Amino acid sequence: MEHTGPANPKFPELAGARAIVTGGATGIGRAIAAALSRQEVRVAIGDIDQKAAERAADELGGGAVAFAVDVRQRESVQAGFDGVARMFGGYDILVANAGVSTMRHALELTDEEWDFNFAVNTRGVFLSNQIAARHFVDSGSGTIVNTASLAAKVGAPLLAHYSASKFAVLGWTQALARELAPKGIRVNAVCPGFVKTSMQTREVEWEAKLRGIAPEQVIKEYIAQTPLGRLEAPEDVADVVVFLCSNSARFMTGQGVNVTGGVYTT
Ligand SMILES: NC(=O)c1ccc[n+]([C@@H]2O[C@H](COP(=O)([O-])OP(=O)(O)OC[C@H]3O[C@@H](n4cnc5c(N)ncnc54)[C@H](O)[C@@H]3O)[C@@H](O)[C@H]2O)c1
Known about the structure:
Elements: E1 18-22, H1 27-38, E2 42-47, H2 50-60, E3 65-68, H3 74-88, E4 93-96, H4 111-139, E5 143-147, H5 160-180, E6 186-192, H6 198-211, H7 215-224, H8 234-245, E7 256-259
Parallel strand pairs: 1-2, 1-4, 2-3, 4-5, 5-6, 6-7
Helix pairs in contact: 1-8, 3-4, 4-5, 6-7
The protein binds nicotinamide-adenine-dinucleotide (NAD).
């Protein structure tokens, strides 16, 4: 059986749950918001691009809401998540998915690029996880899924700073999972491969320029590295995130689950 579209498994225990998805306006986050919504989860889409978040929430329906958040800023995350708690009467799921990348040879990398990638990808996960986890401890339950990357398992050329920021996400995820396990709060991560999103479009252009090859060649190489033989769809990631939020994953915590179409990772 070939399966390329989103699966539609039913996790009835998720119906009525409330989720925050950061970076949910587009790409992987948007697919996660849609997949949770199909399980009758009420979703709050938090994004630095408020207009795009509002469009995504409108298109989703099902009581989805949007809020502006910059995951780099504690006050912004606290205010955004508190606002969701007021609107929804609490929340049960956090998907910390907001992320950025830039591409550069390691020897030419600037301090600003390093700090930018770490501010969004690592500090953003720290802040959103901590603020949500405090809420979950107070309310007695909750689960967290962080979007890491294939580049969190294997150092990616031209993305050394991004790789480092995503390796850090897995270290944080493992440690937080162990601290929160006694309270029944699970913390996991997904590690996507070459996913067709606006981030990928930007990276393909940058990589083509840096390597002096055609963008089409870059994409060909992504597919050639992927045993399942195609670019990854955001929905491929989203279905696994839904599973990790569900009771079917009740004995999983501290994991960085590869969703890469078989690209070699540890
Ligand atoms: N596309 C891939 O191949 C791929 C592979 C592995 C991991 N990832 C990770 O998946 C996640 C989603 O990536 P994507 O490919 O959907 O990218 P994308 O650029 O399409 O979407 C990222 C979203 O995050 C938002 N965002 C950026 N900075 C933010 C901030 N400071 N605060 C709040 N929101 C912010 C953007 O506005 C955007 O809506 C990222 O963490 C990325 O690192 C992507």
